Amino acid sequence: MKKTDLVHLIKKRTEEQNEQLLIFCRDLLRIKSYTFEEETAVKRVIEEMEKLNYDNAYIDEFGNAIGVIGNGPDVILFDGHIDTVHEGDISKWNVDPFGAEVKNGNLYGLGASDMKVPGAVMVYAAAIMKELHLDQGKTIVVSFSVMEEDMDGVALDNILTYSGYKPRAVVICEATDLRLCHGHGGRSMFRVTMPGIPTHCSRPEDGVNAVYEMQEIIGRVAKLSDGLLAQERKNGTIALSKIESASASLNAVPYSCSIYLDRRTTSHLTPRLQFEEMDRLVAGTNATWEVVDIQHKTWSGYEAVMHSVLPAFDLEEDHELVAAAKEAYRELFDEEVENFRFKGTTNGVSSAGKHKIPTIVFGAGVENMCHEANEYCPLEHLEKACAFYVKLVANL
Questions:
Q1: Domain range for residue 262?
Q2: Residue from 48, 60, 135, 148 carrying the catalytic annotation
Q3: 33 contacts: CB under 8 Å, gap ≥ 6
């Protein structure tokens, strides 16, 4: 088939399926699926995959919704997360966060951009790939994964480690405003703890206030942050995100103080370099530091752990996956795709950072709407992103 004929056919099928896709998007938006509470939404995804005649659709032990099309040796995986943050201050919303309202050319709701709607698009795109026989020699794996908001990459890591599928390419379908991302920063979380000596507040001179002692560390963190910002993010950023103390009572001097540091990293900042930086931050004090490990059970009861050193990744501009993505966009829309780089992280910290699988990020939805009141996704993004995924697979 000629490329022009295939492009026409892809556009035709995505247009024809768009009404059903929108219904599916609205169904997902009406289901609450906060992190660790995704069961109902996951089951709804499986229902849709079965309706769309996936070759296999199942829920793995981790609680992820997995759909499979084809059985060829060339594995391509599409990933999106089904969980959302909470809606926050409801007074800030002008629409019902779970109303899935359509108005002014947009679809509104919690998860409209982050990222139930972008994920729903990949579900339909894979079904169209099957209809057009683009799965020949390939296996298309669609993972609608869980708990990304609190534990980046852990669910996808479980899929890549235990599913038996070994993708040669991964597409993370996070909202990118239909821009192409082939690299983003990493994130590490550290806890610094300063000890003190407890005493009654009527006798502060008999003890050591751990909060006061922590001021030295806080000053060092602020100085490091200023220096990193002056380098225009070439070496990432650091921010103090939380402070807590422990004392026997409100009238006792704190015997311990802890701060949490969110370290955004670039690909050259290895764990060893980060750990050396932490050693310098606490040098000459009584403070100690550790990597924060987050533990939680998935909705299915699986005990998950995130070791909070999440690597950055960069995929070369001339890599075949990037080239195929650019060509797909050009062929479909007769223009060049815009490149950009996430300031935050995605499940790509697992696929690209840990497993070293070539990974790109591309999706429907507005990046800056993530975790915002009145979250929305432009309706025009649905067809475009869907067609892009189909053509990308055709090009690979």
A1: 186-297
A2: 148
A3: 40, 41, 42, 82, 83, 84, 111, 116
User: CA 394 to CA 396: how far, in whole Å?
Assistant: 6
In a domain, 302, yes or no: no
* Residue in 83, 87, 114, 367 annotated catalytic: 83
Whether residue 166 is contained in a domain is answered as: yes
Tell whether 28 and 123 lie within a shared domain.
Answer: yes
Two structure tokens written together for 253: 């001097």
172 has which bridge partners? 79, 361
**35 and 146 together in one domain:** yes
Q: Where are the beta strands (DSSP E) in the chain?
A: 56-59, 65-69, 74-81, 102-103, 106-108, 138-145, 169-172, 183-184, 186-195, 237-246, 256-265, 288-291, 293-297, 303-307, 309-310, 313-314, 359-361, 376-378
The pLDDT tens digits of the residues spanning 319-357 come to: 999 999 999 999 999 999 999 888 789 999 999 999 999
pLDDT band at residue 2, thresholds of 50, 70 and 90? confident
Reported as a single tens digit per residue, the pLDDT across 274-325 is 999 999 999 999 999 999 999 999 999 999 999 999 999 999 999 999 999 9
Instruction: Indicate if 47 belongs to the active site.
Output: no
pTM beyond 0.90: the answer is yes
Told to judge if 15 belongs to the known catalytic residues of this protein, a careful annotator would answer no
Q: What is residue 341's predicted lDDT score, i.e. its pLDDT? A: 87
Token pair 């030295």 is found at: 216
- Beta 313-314 vs 183-184: how paired, if at all? antiparallel
| Contact assessment for residue 47 and residue 369, using Cβ atoms and an 8 Å cutoff | no
One domain for residues 176 and 272: no
pLDDT at 179: 98
**pLDDT over threshold 90, residue 1:** no
Residue linked to tokens 């300063």: 194
User: What are the helix (H) ranges across 271-319?
Assistant: 271-282
How many separate domains does the chain show?
A: 2
Residue 206: inside a domain? yes
Ramachandran region, residue 73 (left: φ > 0; alpha: ψ -120 to 50; beta: rest): alpha
- pLDDT confidence of residue 41: 98
pLDDT of residue 172: 98
Element (H, E) at 41: helix 39-51
Decide if pLDDT at 170 tops 90.
Answer: yes
Kindly report the number of other CB atoms within 10 A of residue 308's CB atom.
Answer: 19
